[in-house]
Design goal:
- The protein is α/β, with parallel strands linked by helices.
- The chain has a single domain, classed as Aldolase class I (TIM Barrel, Alpha-Beta Barrel).
- The protein is 40% helix and 16% strand.
- An 8-stranded parallel barrel has the order 1-2-3-4-5-6-7-8, surrounded by 6 helices.
- Helix 2 runs parallel beside helix 3.
- The longest helix is centred in the N-terminal third of the chain and has 17 residues.
- Bound molecules: ligand 3NM.
- The site of ligand 3NM has 16 residues, from loops.
- InterPro entries: Aldolase_TIM, ThiamineP_synth_sf, ThiamineP_synth_TenI, TMP_synthase.
């Protein structure tokens, strides 16, 4: 299947879920992703920088099948080799990873590529690269312990991205149930939430409440 052609339907679910076992209150990634899918998330990103390659591979084989069965897309953060090895649906890359045209060549045409941006210049450049990439990450909106080194981009950059992006946007960084409204009000339709979801007592309920904020009529 060429995911790139039908990608809008995955963005329609509003919340982009990302794994982070370190802050998931003792639950493993399999349990966490199960609940995310049960809550209705269709976009799952596997982000685990500290495990070894074999552990990541074995976990991703299971997660890929779970996400596929739920009709979602399974994206891997950073590790292009892992994405190819488990036939994931795509990768998410940052500004210091391999260039998008090279990643596109490695992955082939049917897979998804997301690119993080943090400034007007990076957004403009991402637009120029739009034949290689599928969506643009914008963040961190707020300072966040999940990515301590990242400097918040603020709302003026978010507004610029909403007005000027030629691809779907995913906002990320310090976004939680209590402050997601300001992101939605800025015009963002897909929001990535890490710690507020994986650390929630009841992940499924949390996801449903977050989705309801974006799409008040879905339940
Ligand atoms: N990427 P939380 S911010 C993984 O700005 C990640 O590109 C970011 O975690 C970026 O929802 C971030 O817990 C962490 O704040 C987001």
């Amino acid at each position: 299947m060429n995911l790139r052609a039908g990608m809008e339907s995955f963005f329609n679910t509003g919340i982009y879920g990302i794994t982070a076992e370190k802050v998931s209150n003792g639950r493993n990634n399999i349990e966490v992703v199960r609940e995310m899918l049960d809550g209705g998330i269709k976009f799952i990103q596997y982000r685990e920088k500290e495990k070894d390659a074999l552990s990541r591979y074995e976990e991703c084989l299971i997660l890929r099948d779970m996400v596929k069965q739920a009709g979602g897309v399974f994206i891997i953060d950073d590790f292009i080799d892992l994405a190819i090895a488990v036939n994931a649906d795509g990768v998410h890359i940052g500004q210091s990873d391999l260039p998008p045209n090279v990643v596109r060549k490695m992955l082939g045409n049917g897979k998804l590529i997301g690119l993080s941006t943090h400034s007007v210049e990076e957004l403009d450049r991402a637009n120029e690269l739009k034949k290689y990439i599928d969506y643009i990450g914008v963040g961190p909106i707020h300072a966040t312990p999940t990515k301590k080194e990242a400097v918040p981009v603020g709302f003026s950059y978010l507004d610029y991205a909403v007005k000027n992006s030629q691809l779907p946007l995913v906002a990320i960084g310090g976004i939680k149930e209590h402050n997601i409204d300001e992101i939605i009000d800025a015009g963002v339709k897909t929001v990535a939430v890490v710690s507020d979801i994986v650390g929630a007592d009841n992940i499924k309920n949390k996801v449903q409440r977050l989705r309801k904020k974006i799409f008040p009529d879905i339940f």
